[in-house]
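Example 9 (inverse folding). The structure is encoded as follows.
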């Protein structure tokens, strides 16, 4: 225990009087900002009409739908009994509780009003959003680590972290940082490399790759990530809620990826060379 790493990071970045700014909120801001920058850069490379008004419209719709979806997803999937007992708890975001899968549903739905307002195809917006999404995941998982939440299973590895509190005093996998690396850095690198091909790959390619890769990583990571205390394992000691919700992502991603390669619908009407 003497060589263990002890978690002692204040989740509050700074305070001004009674007003406190938490690292989690900063992570959301950074995620949306850099995702918008990346979407803008990729759209230019693809030759898509994507002006400042368009990106602001898309990001605004995205922020609202992700926050609402993430909160509702957590309340329905991870804290249903407490939500039914006190429905107003849905609005108590300050108490924590956001679900990636709920946020993903919100993000996908945000493409509908975004497409209507910007006249950019829904799947093109979804593809651009998929390329920027890992950036937000990276910052979000780092914020999870700072908050000392969503920790991993006990480990005797030298980089095990003692989170204290409900996690106890045994060293645990810093699964938040594993996910930041795999869901964030690695997945972003894969999508970025794919986005550099000219002409751009067909509509749905990037969303398909994102869903497929994220689902696989999340299912794998759940084996070393401690399940939520209020739910535990759903089937023996092998199935968690995160895995159950990620299995459809793998299936949907594989189907969408295959469909996009067969249909070859160009991004915003750009013409492909037939081969």
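The amino acid assigned to each position is listed next.
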């Amino acid at each position: 225990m003497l060589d263990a790493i002890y978690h002692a990071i204040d989740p509050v970045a700074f305070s001004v009087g009674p007003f406190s700014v938490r690292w989690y909120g900063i992570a959301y801001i950074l995620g949306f900002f850099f995702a918008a920058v990346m979407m803008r850069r990729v759209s230019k490379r693809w030759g898509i009409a994507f002006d400042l008004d368009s990106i602001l419209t898309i990001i605004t719709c995205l922020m609202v739908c992700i926050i609402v979806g993430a909160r509702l997803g957590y309340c329905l999937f991870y804290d249903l009994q407490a939500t039914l007992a006190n429905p107003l708890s849905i609005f108590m975001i300050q108490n924590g509780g956001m679900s990636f899968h709920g946020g993903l549903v919100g993000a996908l739905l945000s493409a509908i009003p975004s497409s209507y307002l910007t006249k950019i195809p829904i799947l093109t917006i979804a593809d651009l959003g998929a390329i920027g999404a890992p950036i937000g995941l990276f910052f979000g998982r780092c914020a999870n680590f700072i908050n000392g939440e969503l920790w991993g299973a006990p480990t005797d590895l030298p980089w095990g972290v003692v989170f204290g509190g409900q996690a106890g005093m045994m060293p645990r996998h810093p699964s938040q940082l594993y996910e930041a690396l795999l869901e964030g850095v690695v997945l972003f690198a894969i999508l970025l490399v794919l986005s550099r091909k000219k002409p751009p790959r067909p509509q749905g390619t990037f969303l398909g790759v994102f869903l497929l890769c994220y689902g696989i990583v999340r299912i794998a990571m759940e084996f070393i990530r401690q399940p939520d205390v209020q739910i535990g394992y759903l089937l023996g000691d092998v199935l968690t809620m995160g895995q159950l919700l990620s299995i459809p992502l793998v299936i949907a991603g594989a189907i969408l990826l295959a469909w996009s390669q067969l249909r070859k619908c160009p991004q915003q009407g750009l013409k492909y060379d037939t081969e």
